[in-house]
Write a structure and sequence with these properties.
Strand content: 35-45%
Distance between the termini: 109 Å
Number of strands: 60
Strand order of the largest sheet: 34-33-36-37-38-39-42-49-48
Helix content: under 10%
Radius of gyration: 44 Å
Shape: elongated
Structural class: mainly beta
Number of helices: 2
Oligomer: single chain
């Protein structure tokens, strides 16, 4: 119970005097009840120890609304009409904090308010303090347990000690300030502070071991919510050089024993046993010291974890401490929190399952452990114990991991702009898998950790695009229509699939307001651009696989070196991440590759490497001479075919129009000033035009820097004209499908002839049937 007799003190020179407890009487004027709708001010002038009277001893002024009225309170009173400012109340106490606390006392502190809010010194004022352990207690300025005089300046530090309180009890306190007229503040911030629980009775060491110590005690009077132990090898910092404080807590107030673990053998420790109150605040006993026993296993140190989400595995590594007779590290794994601990003297075999479901995945690991076969988006817990050869176990070191992959980018992306150019409609097909193509657990209703939303972005350029987020769309969405800020300008949009685990996303395609679709590599410049007609092949109804496709653009840093200064791959993949190489109906796919320069020379650069690793080609190519010494190549599955392409030395790009996806490279080569062709630019010498997709045609690629006219013809071995070549898969190419007038020619030797700029290039071909 709260005792009205208590100690009170004030800081910063404030004068406080304890007054007798008394409740203030309700204000009454001349026996008349004052109206709530009126503001009254009673003014008394003190002179020669008495009240100066004018006709009746006092002046009473009343102001109601916007008009002043007057009445006489008694015979001889002078009544004056008009308004009078209402006297301000002292400010409220805005914060009460606990300075110290014990089992039966609380010291509370606050800063003094002012006479008028936060301003003005209070002279000959007084405080009222009300406190109760009842959470439903009704506070008001006229209800208090103590009252005392004070004179304070705003901001003065004040404090009061409440004594004779019950242990482990929360007390609610408010403090009101009044001026010399006894006008009290209307309110006060409430303090909610709990006293401490009595300390544990008769604490004693119940067991001392190599890496742990056990204490026992008797429950104190009034009980406790729980108990805790703090341990320190430096007497909590009083001994050099500081050190770690080890802690342990019980889960309730019923326990009378507690073990603190993780200690070092043969080391002196200092311990403090505490009881905990409802606020989990400790009340410590005196310090008890002891020395742990020598020997015993020490816990592992420097535990590190590296996860591989693509291979669904985790590598744990650590440092083994020095102790006698080490027997390796026992590793426990579970998809639930591990509560089990091995029992000293028991050796557990591989695969042993504890009662909590955790499993021994390595009975005696050396200094690392590889755990495979993990699931995405599932928390996996680990516990590791050092042990001796006689199966004595250390305290556990625990960790956990969650492997997550972002969802695959939206496949089958396409867009079309409204007739007036003021809006763009983007459409895509359903996302049902992770970035690596592994299916969601429930494709029709993926969890938020698998797919949470689609984020829509916009940019003004596809080169080094600065993407601005427009909105998020739900997982059920398969399209979005966005306003186009300026129809006279080309705008770019992309849709990212996101899960709830992180903001990471799969590399997605982009579209523009012209209907083109893009896939861009990590250098933010190199890209493939598909025309609206070619982009139809990405839809499930537009390609032979019958599935929607995503075109992924990858840098291939492993290819750099020798003649290669740039290598990229444009790879159409299905939702299961199966690669689907494509050859489009026309050469309307624009491939742009960006190369780097350093110290005036063309170099390769491995993007993704910290700082960008520079790789110089075997043959030096000056940046100023790039147009004559760089060319584009394409991998046809067997060899890299020379495509030449156009070099833009200002933007440091090599571009080529193509009908193929796959791997493209920039290589060093010597280019002629005019039309040129060599046999290395012929795709194959032998034709097997049987429709199996292998060597059904031959392609001739040439360098044509002046965009000169060209033609190609096929002759028999006796010189007879057989057929004219047709345009090839890129602008500077020709091809022949082994047919003449729609029919497959006879097997045998044939001669090709290519003419341009008064130059003729010829060679032989073989048709095999």
């Amino acid at each position: 119970m709260f005792n009205p007799g208590r100690r009170i003190r004030a800081a910063a020179g404030a004068s406080l005097a304890i007054l007798a407890l008394a409740l203030l009487s309700s204000p009454v004027l001349a026996g008349q009840k004052l109206s709530n709708a009126s503001a009254f001010i009673l003014r008394n002038t003190v002179q020669s120890g008495g009240v100066r009277s004018t006709g009746g001893g006092m002046v009473l002024q009343q102001s109601v609304g916007q008009a002043g009225t007057a009445f006489s309170a008694s015979a001889g009173s002078k009544v004056e009409p008009g308004f009078m400012p209402m006297a301000a109340q002292p400010g409220s106490v805005v914060a009460i904090t606990s300075v110290t606390k014990d089992t039966g006392s609380l010291e509370l502190a606050w800063n003094a308010p002012g006479l008028n809010g936060f301003f003005g010194q209070v002279v000959n004022g007084r405080y009222r303090v009300d406190t109760s352990s009842d959470p439903l207690h009704q506070f008001r300025p006229t209800r208090f347990v103590t009252e005392f005089a004070t004179s304070v300046v705003p901001g003065d530090s004040q404090s009061i000690v409440l004594t004779d309180l019950d242990p482990n009890t929360t007390y609610y306190t408010r403090i009101y300030l009044a001026d010399t007229r006894k006008f009290f503040a209307e309110d006060s911030r409430r303090s909610d502070e709990s006293t401490l629980t009595r300390v544990p009775v008769a604490p004693a060491l119940a067991g001392v071991f190599g890496t742990s110590v056990t204490f026992s005690w008797t429950v104190p009077a009034d009980g406790a919510v729980g108990y805790g132990i703090n341990g320190s090898s430096t007497n909590f910092g009083s001994l050099y050089p500081g050190g770690v404080v080890h802690t342990s807590r019980t889960i309730d107030g019923v326990a009378v024993t507690l073990t603190i673990t993780g200690l070092s053998p043969a080391t002196t420790y200092y311990f403090k046993l505490a009881s905990l109150n409802w606020s989990s605040e400790p009340n410590f006993t005196s310090i008890i010291s002891t020395c742990t026993r020598p020997g015993g296993p020490l816990p592992i140190q420097n535990l590190a974890l590296v996860g591989d989400r693509f291979d669904r595995e985790v590598l744990l590594s650590w440092t083994n401490p020095d102790f006698d007779n080490p027997g390796g590290v026992t590793v426990l794994v579970s998809t639930n929190i591990i509560t089990a601990d091995p029992v000293d003297g028991t050796s557990y075999p591989l695969g042993y399952a504890f009662a909590d479901g955790s499993v021994v995945t390595d009975p005696a690991a050396p200094a690392s452990h590889l755990k495979s076969g993990l699931e995405l988006d599932v928390t996996t817990y680990f516990k590791l114990y050092s042990k001796t050869v006689t199966a004595s176990y250390s305290v556990a070191v625990s960790t956990y991991v969650i492997l997550d992959l972002p969802p695959m980018a939206p496949p089958g992306l396409w867009a079309q702009t409204s007739a007036d150019g003021t809006s763009i409609e983007m459409r895509w097909e359903g996302v049902v898998s992770n970035m690596d193509g592994s299916s969601f657990k429930a494709q029709a209703a993926p969890s938020a950790w698998e797919l949470d939303r689609f984020s829509v972005y916009r940019a003004t350029s596809i080169v080094r695009a600065g993407w601005t987020k427009l909105t998020d769309q739900p997982v059920s969405a398969s399209g979005f229509t966005a306003a186009v800020p300026d129809p006279s300008q080309v705008w770019y949009y992309k849709i990212e699939s996101k899960d709830a685990f992180s903001d990471e996303s799969d590399d997605c395609m982009a579209v523009d307001t012209l209907g083109n679709v893009y896939a861009v590599t990590s250098d933010k410049i190199t890209r493939i651009q598909l025309s609206p007609e070619l982009a139809k092949a990405l839809r499930s109804d537009g390609n032979p696989s019958g599935k929607p496709l995503v075109v992924r653009a990858h840098e291939r840093p492993e290819d750099l070196g020798g003649k290669v200064v740039k290598s990229v791959q444009f790879d159409p993949v299905t939702p299961s991440a199966q690669s689907v190489p494509m050859k489009f109906d026309s050469a309307n796919a624009s491939v742009v590759m960006h190369y780097q320069t350093a110290d005036g020379d063309v170099v390769g650069q491995k993007f993704g490497v910290q700082g960008g690793e520079v790789v110089k080609p075997d043959t030096r190519v000056a940046a100023a001479a790039a147009s004559a010494n760089l060319g584009a190549y394409w991998d046809n599955g067997k060899d890299f075919v020379k495509l030449y392409g156009k070099v833009d030395s200002l933007r440091q790009n090599v571009s080529v129009q193509s009908a193929m996806t796959g791997v493209y490279q920039i290589r060093t080569l010597t280019r002629a000033e005019g039309f040129a062709f060599d046999i290395s630019s012929r795709s194959n010498k032998y034709l097997t035009p049987n429709g199996d997709g292998l060597n059904d045609s031959v392609v001739f690629v040439f360098d044509n820097p002046k965009d000169s006219g060209f033609s190609g013809r096929i002759f028999s071995s006796d010189g007879s004209h057989v057929a004219d070549m047709s345009n090839g898969p890129i602008p500077n190419s020709l091809q022949w499908d082994g047919r003449a007038q729609g029919r497959v020619v006879s097997g045998g030797m044939y001669v090709y002839q290519i003419r341009a700029e008064d130059k003729t290039f010829s060679g032989s071909l073989v048709v095999v049937k």
